[in-house]
Write a structure and sequence with these properties.
Neuraminidase, disordered N terminus, nine-stranded mixed beta sheet, four-stranded antiparallel beta sheet, 40% strand, 5 helices, globular, 16% helix, alpha+beta
């Protein structure tokens, strides 16, 4: 009996040490992401990621990819608007391209119940579920659009959804049962629409919101200022599981809601750091660039623009009017997104103060529901794109889709980062 107690104590100690390992690194203040050079060697990236050069309406599509790490450490990479996924072995070696039955080009979002892949939705609200080889299992149907879907430990999904109502935009978080397709909305928020679904103008034009009704039908709409309350262009709720509970984090307000896996609210708190702002000077620079872009657009000679010159000229007049009225800073959301690490902590990434600096400030939320550290993530070799769809923790590493700075040919890589403290 004593032998079993000792073994159990050692096992608990080892688990405790592992659980504390990433926290101890975060507490050094700087996390350096260093490429594991033994991972994904020998892949021909020009071939494997040939879709990096895809375009849609002349716009680059190459970075519209995401990845999922399977329980054994193998990786699936999704390619936007491509009807295949790419499979890599646990060592990062290219294995194959494969399709999911009845899924079309929908992206794999994750794994539920340890053995089932699930996709995002198509335009009919259909989610496809398959085994790891892409063999069809079932379809679930949701009657709204989604921003995120994650699997819960009880065989359900948590979904960040949104839908256009006649005069409002509804954002919400719901729990959806895998077996029954039944759902329970646990959080929701509403924003007034400026134009109803019938085309009726509901409010006066808000600053930094512009639209033109085109001859022959159709509407062009445009917003210029990020994070302005008048544009409604905030960030969607972020979701993650923490200690067998569901965390719903609201970037625009800093609110944190914790629910049990059945959707019952257990606690409500708020982040304890101040928001960064967009200064008056920065806003004016953003608005001036937008005006210049639209003036160039007006002078482009494009047929649609020339047919509607008066409408587009009016938009420029409204932009210039808004420029003159900028006089107060705009608060940025409290954080941009959250990523769960392999020890169960949640990393809250602030919106970078300096664009393209490749430095990201992070607040660390532990399994006990406390913020216990602040650090910064840096990387020398890669241009970091911080997103839960492009950065996945597994066994202490970060598996990621990133662009190599000094690359010959295709810069996109599947990379495994070591997480090193200062």
């Amino acid at each position: 009996m004593k032998k079993y107690v000792i073994i159990l104590a050692l096992a608990l100690f080892q688990l405790s040490s592992l659980a504390q390992d990433l926290i101890s690194k975060y507490k050094t203040g700087t996390i350096k992401l260093v490429q594991d050079t033994e991972f994904a060697q020998g892949n021909d990236w020009n071939t494997v990621f040939r879709s990096y050069y895809d375009t849609l309406y002349n716009r680059p599509m190459g970075m519209r990819k995401s990845l999922v790490v399977l329980p054994d450490g193998s990786v699936i990479v999704n390619h936007a608007y491509r009807n295949y996924r790419t499979k890599f072995s646990p060592s990062g070696a290219y294995e194959k391209e494969f399709e999911l039955e009845k899924a079309g080009h929908k992206a794999v979002m994750g794994v539920i119940n340890g053995n089932t892949l699930f996709t995002g939705l198509n335009n009919m609200g259909k989610m496809t579920c398959t085994d790891f080889d892409g063999k069809y299992k079932k379809t679930l149907t949701l009657d709204y659009m989604t921003k995120d879907i994650i699997a819960l430990n009880n065989g359900s999904f948590a979904v960040v959804g949104w839908v256009l109502w006649a005069e409002k935009i509804r954002s919400f978080v719901a729990i959806v049962d895998y077996d029954t397709n039944e759902e329970k909305v646990i959080w929701e928020d509403f924003i007034d629409r400026n134009i109803s679904s019938s085309g009726k103008h509901l409010n006066k034009r808000q600053p930094f919101n512009y639209q033109a009704t085109l001859k022959g039908g159709g509407i062009v709409s445009y917003t210029t200022m990020p994070y302005s309350k008048s544009t409604g262009k905030g960030l969607p709720p972020q979701i993650a599981t923490v200690n067998n509970e569901l965390l719903v984090a609201i970037p625009n307000t800093g609110e944190l809601f914790v629910y049990d896996l059945n959707g019952n609210l257990k606690s409500k708190t708020k982040v304890n750091w101040g928001n960064n702002t967009i200064s008056v000077e920065e806003q004016k620079a953003i608005q001036q660039k937008a005006i210049q872009r639209y003036q160039a657009y007006l002078e482009s000679g494009e047929e649609m623009v020339q047919k509607n010159r008066d409408a587009f000229k009016q938009i420029i007049v409204e932009m210039q009017d808004d420029l003159q009225k900028i006089n107060t800073p705009i608060e940025k959301p409290s954080f941009s997104n959250i990523i769960k690490d392999s020890d169960g902590n949640i990393l809250f990434f602030e919106i970078p103060a300096e664009k393209d600096a490749n430095v990201f400030h992070v607040w660390v939320y532990n399994q006990g529901g406390k913020f216990v550290a602040k650090c910064q993530f840096v990387c020398d070799e890669y241009e970091l794109n911080i997103s839960a769809s492009k950065m996945v923790f597994h066994n202490g590493y970060i598996y990621s889709l990133q662009r190599l700075k000094e690359a010959k040919g295709n810069p996109l890589r599947l990379v495994r980062f070591k997480v090193e403290g200062a």
